[in-house]
Amino acid sequence: MKYLLQRLTFYLATAWAAITINFLIPRLMPGDPVQALIARFQGQLDTKAVESLRALFGLDRDASLWQQYTDYWSHLLRGDLGLSFTFFPTPVGEVISQSLPWTLALVGTTTALSFLLGTGLGIISGWRRGSWLDGMLPVTTFISAIPYFWLGLIAIALFAVKWPLFPAAGGYDSALVPGFTAEFIGSALYHAVLPGITVVLSAMAGWVLGMRNMMVTVSSEDYVTVAQAKGLSERRVMFSYAARNAILPNISGFALSLGFIVGGTLLVEMVFSYPGIGYQLFQAVGAKDYPLMQGVFLIITLSVLVANLLADVVYLLLDPRTRREA
């Protein structure tokens, strides 16, 4: 319990630092987002309206940076993330709630699938060194070195342009109205095939390499040799003794991946114009949309911290050495 309280205190302090940086960075960026918003109205706003917009977005020139900071925390604790410049006057929370399910569905599913496939293949290839599966390691190394957005461009060129089997962009057919209907869900799955395959291939290669190398190291340990000497089945030794210890670094990496699910795979969403939260972040940066950037960064930061806390809990359950040290 003391160990968990220490970790929780650490993550709370980290969350405070991240939120503070999240507040400062957009305000240090060059440019005036309010002027960009006003330009969209082509001079239809008077001076009082301009100052009202500044106050509305927490950028009042008469307010000090400290006052803006305290106001930011006050709104944050009430769950108010402000209004988006890009989608004015839509609240940031509404914009995020519309795009977050797309990212969770795509990146969450592909991250879990790539982890399971990559870890399973890594266990088998590392345990059975010299097999044909282990001989495919150079191919895995090559795939892991390819940027996933480049894989996405290749997938579009081959399967959306040369052989038009799948759509090249979007999250669903523009003629459909979003809803829980069989037609809409089928269209969403159809549009997610290419970006999903891109993420799975790119991420799975890393899991295979990491797990394979750890299995090679663990299989030479004394406790594995003793388990084999006892006459235990190869399957039990491989999974219950070798893989259980070799998988610990992968679990830590998987926890980080779970945290970054919320952020999405930004470049993949940009390449495929996928309506996820990463694509919204890209639009927010281009429009200098402070509130939307801060909202997205906040969600990403908190999700990463929660995922790391869960990883610490899983470590306590899987590794007796961690419990003794705690």
List descriptors:
single chain, mainly alpha, 75% helix, 16 helices
Overall shape: it is: globular
Under CATH, the topology of the largest domain can be stated as MetI-like fold
Main sheet summary: none
Radius of gyration: 24 Å
Overview in brief:
The protein has 326 residues and is mainly alpha-helical. Helices cover 75% and strands 0% of the residues. The chain has helices at 2-28, 33-40, 47-56, 65-77, 92-127, 132-135, 137-145, 148-162, 182-218, 222-229, 234-246, 248-261, 266-271, 277-286, 290-318, 320-325.
Your description of this structure?
The protein is mainly alpha-helical and 326 residues long. The chain has two domains: 2-77, no CATH class; 104-275, Orthogonal Bundle (MetI-like fold). It has helices at residues 2-28, 33-40, 47-56, 65-77, 92-127, 132-135, 137-145, 148-162, 182-218, 222-229, 234-246, 248-261, 266-271, 277-286, 290-318, 320-325. Helix 1 runs antiparallel to helix 15, helix 8 (148-162) packs across helix 9 (182-218) and helix 12 packs antiparallel against helix 15. It is globular and about 85 Å long. The mean pLDDT is 77.
